[in-house]
Amino acid sequence: MTVTIKDVAKKSGVSISTVSRVINNSKPVSNEIRQRVMSVIKETGYVPNPVARSLVTKKSQLIGVIVPDISNFFIGELLNGIEEVGKIYEYDILLCNSYGEMEEELKYINLLKSKQVAGIVFVTWKMSDEHVKAIEEGNLPAVYISKNAHNFDVYSVSIENERAAYEMTKYLIQKGHTNIGFIRSSIEDDLVDSQRFRGYKNALTDSGLEINQRIIKEGDTTSESGYYLMNEILESNDMPHAMFATNDEVAIGAINCILDKGYKVPDDISVVGFNDIKLASLYRPSLTTIKQPIYDMGAVSIRMIVKMIDGEQLEDKHTYLPYELIERQSVKEKK
């Protein structure tokens, strides 16, 4: 049988409004009454109705989170940061998985508004004006994690992708590699991928090296695609010294192909990735990669939401977190 606030009031010998004041800390009550009510709540296991509570406090304890693919490594780590920091500030998460479909994203934005969430963390592969308009119409605090978020006048969290890719390419060059290939996304208007590709090209150009189009491939950002595209490169007459993949899944697929074809990593071909998913350190050879602070991106995004809910001023709209080049076993200096 569900315990109600009426049951708590009756057992405590006080009014329902007094129980409400104790739960929501809305008006002062004596210590003796507070302790009596709290003791009954503990004894009965009463759980306050969050909707009713929000009507009293004028503040919802729900934050909506929309993600494009809950099974994605990147998304999973983001959610860890969002949920754990949310708990610290006593917010529950209402999670929506859009499968990257714009129609679903817009539907979930409207659903979250109807649920009276206190704010929204919106994670999408590609933002649009429609997304921003739909969220702003609800007058809700919102933080965006998206490949093109910095093109909009919104609060966002990311890293400097071009600079990170430039640094990784220079690292390979310093290891003696000159014929460096790149496997990138074929998705049109993929801004993050374009930034990483630009960083790669600029590093080669600044070092006086050729951009070898024969060992640059485009495809899906999956390990299967990495395998297939690496196979195309190996079947050509142009053997790369090193390969830079746009993410770790693609890099791992490329390594699998190289090994299946009888070559060694890193003895014959060095391979690097981007993101530093958990599998990157567990795989053998372990993957050299750019560590994107994925957990921190989730944690910072919800902390920004809480600050906005509390009326605090945020210094910058676009927050760029530090990245790190992680050296592991998949790169060898070329003699």
Structural commentary:
This is Catabolite control protein A. Keywords: DNA-binding, Transcription, Transcription regulation. It holds the Pfam family LacI. One of its GO terms (molecular function) is transcription cis-regulatory region binding. Residues 3-57 form the HTH lacI-type domain. The protein is an alpha/beta fold. The chain has three domains: 5-57, lambda repressor-like DNA-binding domains (434 Repressor (Amino-terminal Domain), Orthogonal Bundle), CATH 1.10.260; 62-159 and 294-321, Rossmann fold (3-Layer(aba) Sandwich); 161-291, Response regulator (Rossmann fold, 3-Layer(aba) Sandwich), CATH 3.40.50. α12 links the parallel β9 (270-275) and β10. The chain is elongated, with a radius of gyration of 25 Å. α8 packs parallel to α9 (191-206). The N and C termini lie far apart (75 Å). The model has no long low-confidence stretch (mean pLDDT 89). The strands form two sheets. A six-stranded parallel sheet has the order 2-1-3-4-5-11, with helices on both faces. Strands 7-6-8-9-10-12 form a six-stranded mixed sheet, sandwiched between helices. The protein contains 13 helices and twelve strands. The chain has helices at residues 5-12, 16-24, 31-44, 50-57, 73-88, 102-114, 129-136, 161-174, 191-206, 223-234, 248-260, 278-282, 294-309, and strands spanning 62-67, 92-97, 119-124, 142-146, 155-158, 180-185, 216-219, 242-245, 270-275, 288-291, 318-320, 324-326.
What is the overall pLDDT average? 89
Sheet-strand content, in percent, reads: 15-25%
Class of the largest domain, according to the CATH hierarchy? Alpha Beta
What is the total domain count?
A: 3
Please state the CA-atom Rg, rounded to the nearest Å.
25 Å
The 3D shape can be described as elongated
Helix content: 40-55%
CATH overall fold name of the largest domain: Rossmann fold
Give a short account of the largest sheet.
Answer: 6 strands, parallel
Query: CATH H-level name of the largest domain... which superfamily?
Result: Response regulator
How many DSSP-defined strands?
A: 12
Span between N and C termini? 75 Å
